[in-house]
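Lay summary. Proteins are chains of building blocks that fold into shapes, and those shapes determine what they do. In this project we predict the shape from the chain. Here is one chain we studied, written as its sequence of building blocks.
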Amino acid sequence: MRLLPADLPERAALSMEVHARPSEPLAAPGRASYCAVLVDADERERELAHLGRLCRQHGQPAPAADAVHWSGTVGPLRVKWERHGEFSSYTFLMASTGGDPFVDTAAAQLPAHWLAAVPGMTVYAGHAELLSPAEGRELSELLRTSFGERMVVGSAVGDGAGLAYSDFLTHPDGFGRFLLIDQGLSPLVAGRMIQRLFEIEAYRMMALLAFPVARRLSPRLLAIERALASLADSIAAESAREAGRDENLLQELTRLAAEIESGLAASQFRFGACRAYSELVRTRIGELRERRLTGLQTLDEFMSRRFTPAVATCATVSQRMHDLSERVAQASHLLSTRVDIVREQQNLALLASMDRRARLQLRLQQTVEGLSIAAIVYYMAGVVGYMVKGSRSLGMKFDADLVVGLSVPVLALLAYQAVRRARRHASEQDPH
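And here is the predicted shape, written in a compact code that computers can read:
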């Protein structure tokens, strides 16, 4: 009998998410190789097909069409593939048979040209050697064999259970190098440590993809800031109140706003990704639980001195763009307000002029109405005069001048009433 309500459709998948993509164990002595490639969306199918061919050549089931991670055995290698947001990573692990480190690498065990044919562009590639102190080699000799005379960064990791070293450089074979000495690491913890070291470099490189963008944008942002300062001075100047000057300034501000928004649209994804990847780098470094080794920089110190300033530059450029967008918007709003005020003043002056013309027109109309009343009375009086004169033929004797004179006031009153009625009717017909 079920004791719970119906499951959320995503419950099982969300519950297993924290168990997905486990690290592969590696016992000392062991070797690992790692490759992170930037893959376009239209290359995802080719990526799966390429990995599937490798699996089938070694009798392994190919990953599903919707898979985002896969692990299996390919010859002497344990292979782990993961698809991240923008890039995919391949990890190859194998037991070591001894010899000098970084000579017979895990990547060298792959079929010829398979790794070079992986779709995408390489972001980071690295080798790792997991050694045990029982191999009896002097540390200084081991570091010199592994990294030459280059500056080495190192620390105790896992609260002292291992020693990690790297020069954080790309060697002639195109791979970076990590040396991890086991001082009590279990195979699972050792595999996890190596995975973290690889991911620190992969995420660091992905974060730094924003750095060239920031460098390209910096000169243009400086030019926009200077142009905006000049426009702000022009807005504040009294000369800006000249006719048409404000409109020209507003057009220039609109152009600057469009340029800034174009830059924001083109760069903000990259800058946002930089923030996310840099946070992952910090998280992975914190998970190493480093302790200082005498005379060496820790990985955290190395990143703080070299990586953090680059991330800060990207963050600064991104913030400058947002600040510029706000400043241009404020200047545009200020100038638009001033333009609107000037236009309102012009409209008020125009309305006042129209009101004066309307009053003048009304006076003229009233004058014309008075003249029209006089004309109507004049013509009507003439008609009355003709009627009186015509009545004489009927034997009626009226004094024509007297009758016309008496009819004038009556005719004037009738004409006035008729004009008033016509005006009132016209006012009632006007919807305004």
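What the prediction tells us: Residues 23-186 form one domain.
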